[in-house]
Amino acid sequence: MTSDMRFAVLAALVLLSSCRNKSKLDEDRGAQVDALWALAPDKIELGIVASPRAVGLGLRALDAARDAIKQPDLELAKPQLDALLHSMFGSETATPEDAGFARDRAFALFVVDDGVLSVMPIGNRDKFMAARKGKRGSAEDTIETNTCRQLGAHYWCATQPTLFDRIGKGSLRGKLEEAGARGDAELFMVGVPLLGQNAGELMIAAQIEPGQVSLHGRWIGQPDGPLAQLVGIAAPRPDTNGASGFVALNVAPLLANAPAVPIAGGITFEQLAKSLAGPVTATIPAGSVDLQAFAQLTDPKPAQTIIDNCQDVGTFFKLAEQQAPGACRIVLEGTNHLELDAWVEGNTLRLGAKKGPRPAGKPGGMTQFGRELGNGDWSAAFWGRGTMLNLATIKPATSDPPREVALGVHAMALVNELGVGARVDKDGLRFRAVMRTAWANPPAVVAKILPISGADIMTGKATEPAKAIAASAPGTPFAADFDAGQGGLMVPAAMAGFASAVVIPAVMRMFGGDDAPPPDEELPPPMGQADLVALLLRAYTQEAYPKWKADNPGKTCPASLAELAKDFGTEDPDLPLLKDPWGNDLVMKCDAKSFSVMSLGPDGKAGTEDDLRESTP
């Protein structure tokens, strides 16, 4: 890929960003982008178009990023931003205007079978050529091996001149209506596999508002692989009254091959999975971090038996010291000692901070997008809103975190709403997504939010200043986010990998929060490599080998350990099923008397003290 192609791709990504200065949408989105799709060449493999409005918003997003990076704990990200700015404008200090860009011109990128054709938002060719170190001509400009020409209202660049003759020969006008809505920026791509081997067409329409990106998308193809299991599967509609976050899905396809591993009271994972109807919802009442989960049951007996034998559950979860009658109270490690009760209520398995009715959340927690996802017909959906600046329900850390941690916390605190809904049909997949940031607020509010550091957030020093900001700006998104708290962000944090209300408390504890265990409290040591090997060896001897014998009556030994490994139900080549952590092959021995599997240990030699072995009785 040439430098100009890399630049075009980077520019396309930036155009999907947001800005902090709100502008009215005066022109029809479809007409704007269709005027660009009409210019598409034939044999297109990838197309990205952005209206003049999207270009203006994208360039303002860069202005906002430059302003944000001045904050001490965000400065660590400056090298990455500088690299992007240098790629786009020829210098990390240059403005878009210095590089010849115009904020009111369209952008398009078309990748075809033998090159790239693009419409660049250029207002000054001389400055553009100077920034790109190109050669300015009277009718034609050159940048390395790329040729650029002004053709009608647009300034075009191509990796080879013959591509200019193909402009408009593959018009995609109206094609993106299939995405479900039109956007300020849109993407079309062919030959895209989605969690399987079957390829299809991908369409995404991004509607850009100040501080927010909302996506409508569709993949047209025949679902296969894991996606095929979701065809016809419907997620339940959660009770979103007073909620600031939720997740809804049907777990039936995920539990189809649950192992027969004992849990408690003689009930196995397989038996519990078969007793689940499938629909599962979890909600967060606004203003709290009280996770409320509901799993429908076809038969409550297996779950109730597990609850009645709560002491056996300690094999999998740490049990709370205080147990409530009729419930099993567990502690989720990795969070701020989050204790949850599990109990059976009629034909529903419940999970909550305290056994009893679902608590009412503060009113006003739901947004328009949250209601859309909560009331939609999806195969799976999650959504959450709030702010990490409200640490009222979380015990803060007592010392400042490392700069890298503070950077991540500060960056995540600028995200206030995140949600995704997806529906799988026989002819493909449809999805909706949104991300709203602090820049959805008026500039005066953003100016107050931005200086609040990641360290202040983790140590609880951010709560009072944030409360004052919210009180001074009633009616703003931030004021509603502050009321909602940070609990709603638990759902998108868990689903999207954000270290928010679930992970951040654990980091706080690690750096001296009030929930940190006292120095004299003994905690179980973390599992080492030898412990992991022992678990794997026991899995072979106690699970895989007995299952293999049951499936192969009359046989004594498998041909190899690889044959036996198939009984683990996975073909993932990254799982170390045949080697130990030290890179040595596991050794299988089998005869009519016994079956055993051995690791040679760290030294890789048999017959030494570090060998690990498990055998059948």
Main sheet: strands, sense, barrel: 19 strands, antiparallel
Number of strands: 24
Straight-line N-to-C gap: 61 Å
Helix content, binned percent: 25-40%
Class from secondary-structure proportions: alpha+beta
Inertia-based shape: globular
Mean of pLDDT: 84
* Residue share in β-strands: 15-25%
Low-confidence stretches: 1-27, 496-527, 570-575
For the CA atoms, what is the radius of gyration?
Answer: 28 Å
Tally of contiguous helical segments: 18
Q: Any overview of this molecule?
A:
The chain is an alpha+beta fold and 617 residues long. The longest helix has 23 residues, at 529-551. It contains 18 helices and 24 strands. A hairpin with a 2-residue loop joins strand 17 (338-345) and strand 18 (348-352). The chain has a 19-stranded antiparallel beta sheet, sandwiched between helices.
Task: Describe the secondary-structure layout.
Blueprint: H1 3-14, H2 29-37, E1 44-50, H3 52-68, H4 78-89, E2 107-112, E3 115-120, H5 125-132, E4 141-143, E5 146-151, E6 154-158, E7 185-193, E8 199-209, E9 212-220, E10 243-250, E11 262-264, E12 267-268, H6 269-275, E13 276-285, E14 292-297, H7 301-308, H8 310-313, E15 318-319, E16 328-332, E17 338-345, E18 348-352, H9 368-375, E19 380-385, H10 403-413, E20 415-425, E21 428-437, H11 443-449, H12 454-458, H13 463-472, H14 477-484, H15 490-496, H16 504-510, H17 529-551, H18 561-565, E22 587-590, E23 595-599, E24 612-615
Antiparallel strand pairs: 1-2, 1-7, 2-3, 3-6, 4-5, 5-6, 7-8, 8-9, 9-21, 10-13, 10-19, 11-12, 13-14, 14-18, 15-16, 16-17, 17-18, 19-20, 20-21, 22-23, 23-24
Helix pairs in contact: 13-14
